[in-house]
Amino acid sequence: GMSTLYGHNSELAVSEGQDVSKGQVIAYAGSTGNSTGPHVHFEVRISGDPVDPMGYL
């Protein structure tokens, strides 16, 4: 299956496994962890393997 990861958030607006809708706020960008400024780290994985996320933006 497909999974997504969103990192460095300052606050989460949904819970893991929760269904979400297009346009729904799921998190707020932050600067947590080893970060040099506020941003969102976004990953898409298919069957656990990372894929280019551009087609999902």
TrEMBL record:
Gene Ontology MF annotations: metalloendopeptidase activity
UniProt source species: human gut metagenome
Keyword Signal belongs to the record: yes
Keywords, ordered alphabetically: Signal
Keyword Signal set for record: yes
Entry protein name: Peptidase, M23 family
SUPFAM superfamilies documented for this protein: Duplicated hybrid motif
PANTHER family (alphabetical): L-ALA--D-GLU ENDOPEPTIDASE, PEPTIDASE-RELATED
InterPro entries: Cell_wall_metabolism_enzyme, Dup_hybrid_motif, M23ase_b-sheet_dom
A matching Pfam family: Peptidase_M23
Gene3D superfamilies for this protein: Glucose Permease (Domain IIA)
M23ase beta-sheet core domain residues: 1-53
